[in-house]
Amino acid sequence: MVSSMERRRPVVVLYERIVDAIHAGTYPPGSTLPSEPRLAAELGVSRPALREALLLLQEDGLLSVRRGVGRTVADRPPRRGFEHIQPLEELIGAGAPVRVRALLRAVEEPTDFTAQHLLAAARARLRFWESLLAADGTAAALSQEWAAAEDVLETAHPAFARALDAAAGTPDAARTSMLAVLAGASRGVSLSAHSSVTATLVGQRRGEQLGRPADTPAVLITQVVRAGDTPVMAAKHMLPTGAAALPVLQSN
Q1: Alpha-carbon distance 133 to 131, whole Å?
Q2: Quick check: helix, strand or coil at residue 177?
Q3: CA 49 – CA 225 distance, rounded (Å)
Q4: What is the C-alpha to C-alpha distance for residues 184 and 178, in angstroms, rounded to an integer?
Q5: pLDDT by residue (tens digit) across 39-85?
Q6: Which residue from 128, 119, 221, 108 is spatially nearest to 177, judged by alpha carbons?
Q7: Contact 125, 150 (CB under 8 A)
Q8: Predicted confidence (pLDDT) per residue in 13-26, tens digit
Q9: Least packed by Cβ within 10 Å: which of 16, 66, 128, 163?
């Protein structure tokens, strides 16, 4: 698959660099950004490119302009991604019926992705679910979901571990997402989630699964759900162009 970074416009890449710097504390909330010439030099970019990125940041509420002061970072920059912990099949399609079809239900060793987002040990065994979501008979999304290792779940969210065990090998597991299982097992459990949204192409393998050409534009959502401070599930959701709408909730 062609990486999203290779296909993204330079201004979008620059936008994300500045956003990352804000979240990392390089430009703290409430602080005033350096002047355009200085900031362009710090980032190694041209002033026209920087100006365009700054305008987008202002439009999105991360920056404000104060006469005599300059560009100031918002006191509470908006968090990125869709933050509502709700199964994807309930979110897409604006209420239209969405069918989940299992492509794979397996156990696998960690990849770089799961090692990073689930903090999985090298030899851990992780449940992996790959599902195709269809709305009105059309492929709407491809989901890949990983649960944390069994010993982690037994400590952080034993009800989720039991729900996955109960679903294993049953018809229900083929008709639902892992996130739906997690949501159903989490009554009384405090969950939090963070998601990032990027533009990409579906690529050859996913294109075949979605019934789309490899160069079809798509939105890729990376989602991590935590019980307390412990990540218990990580996922990648790919929605190709023309898929059912996905409502996005942003919160401060």
Answers
A1: 6
A2: coil
A3: 35
A4: 10
A5: 999 999 999 889 888 988 887 778 888 788 889 998 865 555 455 57
A6: 128
A7: yes
A8: 888 889 888 888 89
A9: 66
